[in-house]
Amino acid sequence: MTTPEQELSYPDGPPTDIIGGHLISLRRDSLGFLTENMQYGDITHIKFLKYDGYQVNHPDLIRQVMTTDNAIWHKSIIYKRQLKDYLGDGILTVDGDFWRNQRKLMQPAFHVKRISAYADTMVDYALHMLEDWRDGEVRDVADDMMAVTLNIVGKTLFDADFRKESDQVSEALGFMLEEIVHASQQIFHLPEWIPTPTKYRKQRTIDMLDDVVMPIIQARRASGEDTGDLLSMLLMAEDEDGNSMSDQQLRDEAVTLVLAGHETTANALTWTLYLLSQNPEIYEKLQAEIDAVLGSRPATMEDLRQLSYTEQVIKESMRVLPPVWSVARQARETTELGGYPIRKYATAVIPIWGVHHDERWYPDPYQFKPERWTEENEAQIPRYAYLPFGAGPRVCVGNSFAMMEAVLVLATILQKVHVSLVEGHKVEPEPLLTLRPKHGMKMIVTRRN
Asked: Phi and psi of 350, rounded to 5°?
């Protein structure tokens, strides 16, 4: 039982703003805020309006939140409430027994034997994208990566061609990411019944996602056909009682996978191309591996083991510029963390960006060094100091799919073209729900012979 003194004890933390606790500082410079808070210790005290928050900066404490005590720490209700409007009861927005059941139903769809069949699709779509790239032209590769990963998700998830809808879906998902972060960081909120242009666009976005996904689900259920895609697996999945997913459940999981399955991978590929353009020696070494392994033929699933340096480059890219830059959990009961009593409903912020740049685990943390991820060096890094896909029971269900896609698409691109950043183009990470390049990524394409 805690004493009154213990109830009032908090770890150190940054000075609060005049209003809103630390919300204004977080909105002004989210990445800087997380990084500066690291100096106050392995666990720091922060405030969101009148509510307590804790930034968890040490791998051991992150393990406690995400794994050891994961039954206590659920997804943050702030983000869940915002995401739920778009994603419904998808795997990102639910907790407890319902989440465990959904996870169990979805897991077989991401078995390595199942996803290995998608390797050729990933390479084919990357090659199709490159057909439109002209020698010497300037392209926004951020847009290109969003389009190609969305098309890959459409084909592998639905056996559908999303190329006609890709711009529309990408725009809708972009609005969703901006709106969720903006709404979650507001100090004052208008009543729900007051109409605004944002609310109108929000409903249009939800309707558009339904219009794309639901007809495919309904047609597939009616046909009963197994086309070898993830939707077929989800339609056939049954829980222990023999229950399968309803159309609404399938819609919620499908939209969740469309978002998670293309947004983060697209950002990872974009940031990787940027980092390579700034590190010519690494670029040259990577190019040599791709040429040696692939020559002039298309990449295949069997090439993944030989593309070991390509994988190291992507891992390091996701450390330096992590597509998911923070996650939050909320205590469902009173607990303890780092020697401090934690009240029910307090929020734990896991600053993936800050932990990935902690010099205790990564000497020269802002330097791009793929050799950190050789088998020998990776063994020296604490497990919970690297979190591109989260950790614990809620680790990303599609992490193997995403890594395979990133390696194959990157190798295919660099096999065919050389890319360089347009001189003077401003590169600025924008921390929305994911870490996007705020001004896109303008690069010059040079065809390779």
From this structure: -100, 105
The 10 Å Cβ neighbour count of residue 334 is 14
Closest by CA to 408, choosing from 152, 166, 168, is 152
- For helices 166-184 and 77-87, angle between their N-to-C axes, nearest 10 degrees: 150
What values do phi and psi take at 424, rounded to 5? 85, -5
Residue 285: predicted pLDDT: 98
Nearest 5°: the CA angle 141, 146, 153 is 140
Angle at CA of residue 146, ends 145 and 151, nearest 5° = 95
Q: What is the mean pLDDT of each run of 10 residues along the chain (449 residues)?
A: 57 85 86 94 90 95 97 85 85 87 81 83 96 97 95 88 80 81 64 78 88 89 83 80 85 86 93 98 98 97 97 98 95 96 95 97 98 97 97 91 96 98 97 94 95
Angle at 384 between CA 383 and CA 389, to 5 degrees: 95
Query: By C-alpha distance, which of 12, 180, 149 is closest to 83?
Result: 180
Identify which of 427, 416, 415, 320 has the alpha carbon closest to the alpha carbon of residue 373.
Answer: 320
Rounded to the nearest 5 degrees, what angle is found at the Cα of 53, between the Cα atoms of 51 and 59?
A: 165
Tokens of 179: 């709106």
Query: What CA–CA distance (Å, rounded) separates 177 from 146?
Result: 14
For residue 376, the SS3 value is helix
Predicted confidence at residue 185, as pLDDT, reads: 62
Residues making up the chain, counted from first to last: 449
- Please give the full DSSP string across 73-126, using - where no structure is assigned: EEEPHHHHHHHHHHH-S-TTT--HHHHHHHHHHHGGGG-HHHHGGGHHHHHHHH
Please give the span between the terminal C-alpha atoms of the chain, in angstroms, as a whole number: 72
Q: Reduced to 3 states, what is the DSSP secondary structure of residue 252?
A: helix
Q: What's the whole-model pTM score?
A: 0.92
C-alpha 351/C-alpha 55 separation (Å) is: 7
Structure tokens, 144: 């290109």
List, in sequence order, every residue forming a beta bridge with 337; answer none if it has no partner. 340
Residue whose C-alpha is closest to residue 85's, from 257, 192, 203: 203
Residue 182: other Cβ atoms inside 10 A: 13
pLDDT tens-digit map of 7-54: 568 999 998 877 778 888 888 899 999 999 999 999 999 998 778 899
